[in-house]
Amino acid sequence: MKQFITLLFLSIFFQLNAQDVAILKYNGGGDWYANPTAIPNLVEFTNHNIKTNISKNPQTVAVNSEDIYNYPLLFLTGHGNVYFSDNEATNLKNYLISGGFLHISDNYGLDKFIRRELKKVFPSLELKEIPSNHPIYNQTFKFPNGIPKIHEHDKKNAQGFGLFYEGRLIVFYDYETDLSDGWEDQIIHNNPKEVREKALKMGANIIEYAFTN
């Protein structure tokens, strides 16, 4: 009963709180701070094109912090190891089932670690590939073929995976595409304008979906 009341309070808090995004800091040695220009650029694009009002200076929050409940959307990336303690896994689970949303961007090398840690958070849930007709691909910007390919890793197809809790998408995981590379300053990866635009539009869709579902 106590947990139900806590989650109900957090759900109401999300609805009343300002819409912002934060970068999730985790333990394990992986570079959670990778792609530092990505989120600011995405926020600028989203504010301009879908009229959000997100702070241009995203904050960093730790997995075990109560501060994660200040943000309806958390962003996680990196190239290496990710580790959640039991307390961190519980905190992240409570955040997600009470209305939060987590976007994970595979920055190459993250996959085996994040899959392992998500099992700590939701032992009974499986990552499922999200079909192209899902609303996350059909917000302001349309992606009839699903997630776009942005950055080449192993010549594999880009895939968007999700964790669903009671029918709601709570985690979106972009794999073998690295959307956040496409959000960074053009000079960093030298991506063509049309590739960066696709990445930013998909990122805007993720924000729009997270803020309205």
Automatic annotation (TrEMBL):
Residues 1-18 form the signal peptide. InterPro entries: Class_I_gatase-like, DUF4159. The keyword Signal applies. Keywords: Signal. Residues 21-211 form the DUF4159 domain. This is DUF4159 domain-containing protein.
